[in-house]
Amino acid sequence: MTARILVMPGDGVGPEICREAVRVLEALASDHGLDIELEEALVGGAAIDAEGVPLPESSLTAARAADAILFGSIGGPKWDDQPRDNRPESGLLRLRSELGLFANLRPAILYPQLAHVSALKRDIVSGLDIMIVRELTGGIYFGKPAGRHMNANGKREAFNTMRYDEDEIRRIGRAAFDIARARGGRLCSVDKANVLDVSQLWRDVMTELHAEYEDIELTHMYVDNAAMQLVRAPKQFDTLVTGNLFGDVLSDAAAMLTGSIGMLPSASMDTNGKGLYEPVHGSAPDIAGQGVANPLATILSVAMMLRYTLDRGDLADKVENAVGYALDRGLRTRDIMDDETQMASTQEIGGAIVDMLR
Ligand SMILES: NC(=O)c1ccc[n+]([C@@H]2O[C@H](COP(=O)([O-])OP(=O)(O)OC[C@H]3O[C@@H](n4cnc5c(N)ncnc54)[C@H](O)[C@@H]3O)[C@@H](O)[C@H]2O)c1
Ligand SMILES: CC(C)[C@H](C(=O)O)[C@@H](O)C(=O)O
Ligand SMILES: [Mg+2]
């Protein structure tokens, strides 16, 4: 059956990197029998400019109808003065929430060709393959009450609420235990249970769930220590599971272990295998429009789409191998370049990968 893929390029470098990822999908369709139909929809600042809101109803309807979504990135200084609920970022948050995309998978894998570009020494990082499982539709991003006001002392005050109920924790916990079982069998749950009530509940529920997963080794770690351990000795981890805010921060840190934030793909899944696939990075306004953005995080997100939604693990392997070949040939965008390699544009990297796939 033809799979419907909705492309949401968004803002900044989003359209540039999506263009390359779409070329990859088109090459797979024409040369490898991938049965897909592509459609495009507005989101983020581009949607604010065109229709006044960051997630028009027509985009949400198209997203609901799609089997998978390829998402670029949203946001930028142009829209920073929008009220919170009408910022580009709100469009993405609403999309995640409305589609129930609660499980965010952020793999940090070091390509051996980039070992010397990593922020860490080669022996500490070589062979790195960790998976961060981030809860994506709850926690402090969505907790009520939240807001800004003038308090009784005449001072500006603002507040957010970090809230999880046990079902939300159990749901992401099960997803993470299942992923750990399919990987190295070790799960580290990251929280701040020495301070936060919500983290104490998180830890209790993870510990209870462990009874259903006795073959998996479960450990707990405080988030401050986890941030330190990620840059001290990242290979101690296999799978990590954590809440929305902690996962956001830890995954950007993990990106630098792989050489660049431009290397980190992600999948945001619902309970039925539908997914939104996007790079972990943002719209990179500082380099947008220059043709220098690294498209590999987005192309590797296509590989995740092939594996998790389209059930074409064979093609996912092909895409990941093609990325390896492009790196073998010394092709690099600026963020992962060194003295021995050749600077290539966003489009040249995409083109090289498409050539390998053909
Ligand atoms: N999922 C998303 O769409 C998403 C994610 C993060 C941030 N944002 C938004 O993006 C905007 C900019 O945020 P930011 O600057 O904090 O984070 P960012 O990830 O956009 O950029 C951080 C740094 O990484 C670099 N970078 C990012 N992607 C790159 C790529 N593919 N190739 C090479 N270099 C890359 C940028 O040039 C910048 O120096 C904000 O509006 C933010 O809210 C969106
Ligand atoms: C843009 C923003 C809402 C988003 C988040 O915090 O989830 C981004 O940082 C990410 O990591 O996907
Ligand atoms: Mg982030």
UniProtKB/TrEMBL annotation:
Binds 1 Mg(2+) or Mn(2+) ion per subunit. Its cofactor is Mg(2+); Mn(2+). It is found in: Cytoplasm. GO terms for cellular component: cytosol. The record marks 141, 192 as: Important for catalysis. GO terms for biological process: L-leucine biosynthetic process. Pathway: Amino-acid biosynthesis; L-leucine biosynthesis; L-leucine from 3-methyl-2-oxobutanoate: step 3/4. Mg(2+) binds at residues 224, 248, 252. Pfam families: Iso_dh. SMART domains: Iso_dh. It catalyses: (2R,3S)-3-isopropylmalate + NAD(+) = 4-methyl-2-oxopentanoate + CO2 + NADH. Homodimer. This is 3-isopropylmalate dehydrogenase. It comes from Salinisphaera shabanensis E1L3A.
